[in-house]
Amino acid sequence: MPERFTDEELAFLRFARFGELPPRVLPDDLVEVVETEQPDLPVRQPFEIGPGGPA
Questions:
Q1: What angle do CA 9, 13, 15 make, to 5 degrees?
Q2: CA neighbours within 13 Å on the CB side: how many for 34?
Q3: Does pTM surpass 0.70?
């Protein structure tokens, strides 16, 4: 049976692993992101196996 932790124990384990977390971001501090253009990514050529087929 898996071990069950209390909320206080889980809070301590989170602190032990991550340290002090930054303050929570409030909804008023969030901004909407609008992407205006696609990035110029290189076009990948399809891989050709060749006349002998896979080795």
A1: 115
A2: 1
A3: no
pLDDT tens digits for range 1-55 = 778 999 999 989 989 999 988 888 999 999 988 888 877 878 877 777 777 766 6
Tell me the residue type at 36. T
Distance between CA atoms of 43 and 29, rounded to whole angstroms?
Answer: 37
Q: Provide the H-helix boundaries in 1-55.
A: 7-18
Let me know: does 5 contact 13? Beta carbons within 8 Å: yes
